[in-house]
Amino acid sequence: MTVLDSRPDVPGDPQGRIITPMEGPEALISDAGVSMAPVEDLGAGRGPFWLDDWLRANATDVLAWRRHIHAHPELSRHEFATTELVVTLLRAVGLKPWVLPGGTGVVCDIGSGEKCVALRADMDALPLTEATGLPYASTIEGAAHMCGHDAHTAILLGAARALAGAPELPGRVRLIFQPAEEVMPGGALDMIAAGALDGVERIYGLHVDPRLEVGSVGMRVGALTSAADLIELRLTSPGGHTSRPHLTADLVHALGTVITSLPALLSRRVDPRSGTVLVWGAVHAGQAANAVPQDGVLRGTLRTADHEVWTALEPLVASSVESLLAPTGVGFSLDYRRGVPPVVSDPDSTALMRAGVEAALGEGAVASTEQSSGGEDFGWYLEHVQGAFARLGVWSGSPAAQSDIHRPTFVLDERALLCGVRTLVHTALAALA
Which first-to-last residue range defines the signal peptide (predicted)? Predict the structure, then answer.
């Protein structure tokens, strides 16, 4: 059994501010987590020698870290025990991580020199109840790693400890363990504000993808994900009897007008090549069939793959809603919450990451991948520095084992963890060369 010190001296950040030690349970890795049989290393023998040696000796530890984090999920901005685990494992190999003032989120440099590339992983879980039946399933009701952030964290930990044992690095690798990816506008903004990108030339990240078979990495130049904004529209009316709608403002009719007309209107006001889509997720109004309600609410998400379109959407939605509701006499207030920008991988950074994937797993490992309408706050980093984001295949190949992320039944093939470690290490080396 491996027990990690749950109360290490927590270092301050580069500005010397005092960081309060995190509260949380013992960071304990169970016997089952450490004594399990190793999984196949699909990139074994591709080098460099120190990476091969490290993975031969520590592959089961990477799995154990992932299973421990999986069993002890923490929701956004509450990743205290996960942060503590990361700090402890980094300090154990002589690194000097620092924790963000809020107590979640870790930054750490490996190596020396002016040139610096960053590797990022997110740590938070989803507010879901797991239904996988795994022996290391979530022990926390209403919280589960159904988006693979446990894998992301374990992969970056593995890459960090492997890089820490490298004979020499041609520059610095910045590790970014980020909280709160699952909430808008995202914990990436906290990391940036704390200086996590200071001195960084390029940044790279991975996200698990259950549609890609293990051993493959999906990449593309340009937009990989979409900007994702939230819209909440609240309507008000004097109310009244449904037999006399002409004496009031028909709130439900007004809601229906916006529900059907706003998406159609936007499709005529925005370039269709931008992949812009508005979808409503919730509508609430009234109780009685014969009463015009006094208030109602409509909520939805607006997504686009085009950065220029994203900057223009808020005023366009506001003016469109006003025009649609003006004839109805219904009052309204619009709460438009900008979420995250699209993740747009630049050509040079993508080429370097492709070289890293090919060195790590072979030329056949690079797969094409589609642009998604999903949001990912990695896009905030790319507002400041160049970089690339890729999708890590985690599907075993069995149709019965394929389940999408954000579902209570999501599982991944743990061979992907070692593929991820190799990919991040080789990408960092390619970007620093």
Answer: none
Nearest CA to 183 out of 125, 107, 106 is that of: 125
Give per-residue pLDDT as tens, 121-167.
999 999 999 999 999 999 999 999 999 999 999 999 999 999 999 99
In which band, very low, low, confident or very high, does the pLDDT at 9 lie, cut at 50, 70 and 90?
very low
C-alpha span between 256 and 264 (Å, rounded) = 13
**Cα dihedral 237, 241, 245, 249 in deg (nearest 10):** 0
Q: In whole angstroms, what is the distance from residue 144 CA to residue 150 CA?
A: 9
- Amino acid identity of residue 376, one-letter, is E
- Calculate helix-pair angle for 149-164, 80-91, nearest 10 degrees: 20
**Quick one: residue 74, left, alpha or beta (phi over 0 = left, psi -120 to 50 = alpha)?**
beta
pLDDT, position 20: 30
In 16-124 the beta strands, taken as DSSP E runs, fall at: 28-29, 98-99, 106-111, 116-122
SS3 of residue 294 by DSSP: coil
Q: What is d(CA 248, CA 295) in angstroms, rounded to the nearest whole number?
A: 13
Among 79, 70, 40, which residue's Cα sits nearest to residue 134?
Answer: 70
Q: What pLDDT, on a 0 to 100 scale, did the predictor assign at position 36?
A: 66
What's the pTM value of the predicted model, to 2 decimals? 0.89
Nearest alpha-carbon partner for 93 in 44, 166, 152:
166
**CA torsion, ordered 125, 377, 393, 202, to nearest 10 deg:** -130
Position 5 pLDDT exceeds 60 = no
At 10 the pLDDT is 34
Q: How far apart are the first and last CA of the chain?
A: 39
Angle (nearest 5°) at CA 305 between 148 and 409: 25
From the CB of residue 398, how many other CB atoms can be counted at a distance below 10 Å?
8
Q: 3-state class of 202 per DSSP?
A: strand
